[in-house]
Specification:
Length: 239
Amino acid sequence: MNAAARSSKPQFSPLAYWNTVPVGKVQAVLRHAFQRWGRPQRFRVDNGTPWGSVGDLPTDLALWLLGLDVGISPNPPRRPQDNGVVERSQGTGKRWAEPGACADAKELQQRLQEMDVIQREEYPSLKGRSRLEVYPGLKHSGRAYSQNWERKHWRMDLVLAHLAGYAVPRKVDKSGTVSVYNRNHYVGKLHTGKIVYVMLDPLRQEWIFSDDRGNQLRSQPAEQICRQRIVTLTVTSRR
């Protein structure tokens, strides 16, 4: 295809497209990938919806991954060099696939898949050998996954243990409440304007609200932290 023909095609913006993808669709794509490649040991995630949130509680998607026994490693903000191997691989895929020449997401996906096969299975990147030849484990992680497996083995205890390590700040509003997963929780008007810390008691499955000295102010059931809400990605209230 010559340059003139390409310039007449509608310009597809991958960033604009992915910023509008519903979190449920992201989950569906991950399930498909896990079934093909196996569950990874750990996920490196960016600090934005739907992946992660710097200094705050894990997102709905992250909670679901934790229950699958997939660890979460957030990328430090504004430090792409800390994820250099992945960044370089994505950069190569982007150059080879030429997203600007794609008419839509379907065409871009097809090109990316083709380039991924070349990078992994054909390109002589390691002393004349492909990555797959050098690292045969790339075929599959060895960690089983299917939706039937998920129904039987998804683990709430892993989620609770992870959440128990958080103490996130919230400012009490004029009605005496703070927001946790976009749901209001009453702390008390006496504390209006103050910063309190939200923690999870994993045994009682309660939110604990404490002051900056560690004194407990109030506790409330963590009703949104349950298997059904996590697996369906409805922990966060969509107001």
